[in-house]
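Problem 3 from the worked examples.
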Amino acid sequence: MPGKAAAFAVSLRDELAAAIEPVGDLAAAGAASDIVITCTTSQRFFITRDMVQPGTFVAGVGADSEHKQELDPALLAHCTVVADLLDQCCAIGDLHHAIEANAMRQSDVHAELGQVIAGARPGRTSVGQIIVFDSTGTALQDVAAAAAVYRRATGQAQCPRFAFDA
């Protein structure tokens, strides 16, 4: 796989004009990162508490069924957890596994994403705070993300208006 990782990094480096470097040591990569994003089909966690340094933002995106898991329950229990949809994350996200392992309860979750965006709950409150975003996926958030990517790609300040047939 190292050859595929290197080829992928070169492809992205050229496409994005950004510094992209494949690594062979996941723990070292996590420890050196300010942002960790997982998006896999893993059925067992591979990001552990000791891989994440103070101040890191972790987005767990791949655990979208009760059998998928990317983040160690101990990591979630140690961090400020924000869920896209709390009930859904408790049923199928990495949060589901943390609750099942008795590492945390639903009431330990800091906020839902909508609460942070609306200003009803604070986001980061200290430089060293580790925030874990447990994302199980919602269609509305997918549309909002796609609109933001579209705006940035086309240089538009606002999203185009869409018309729907009733």
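Problem 4, a separate protein:
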Amino acid sequence: MKTIRTTALATLALALLMPVVSSAEDAIVSDTAPPAPRAEHAPAHRDGFVWAPGYWEKSGRSFRWVSGTWISERRGVHWVADRWEQAGSEWRYLRGHWEP
């Protein structure tokens, strides 16, 4: 029983450490530009954490602001924040992710 629990916890830990990958199939596309980003002031530095700034999330036909948050630091990589990019007449949401 202890071995099963240990294996399950190790599997969960590895899954949480895997980078978030977004494919074209789950891309969020809008024909409406998101509002301008809100001014957020990152709190003072916290050892072992990285500040992930807020972003606009598409909610039905409108946008909803998601406030920034602290995320656990990963050594050897840096956080690329969630953002919207214009592609022609459309706007594509790019999910935040870790990059080397």
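Solution to problem 4. Residues 5 and 11 are 10 Å apart (CA to CA). The first strand starts at residue 28 and ends at 30.
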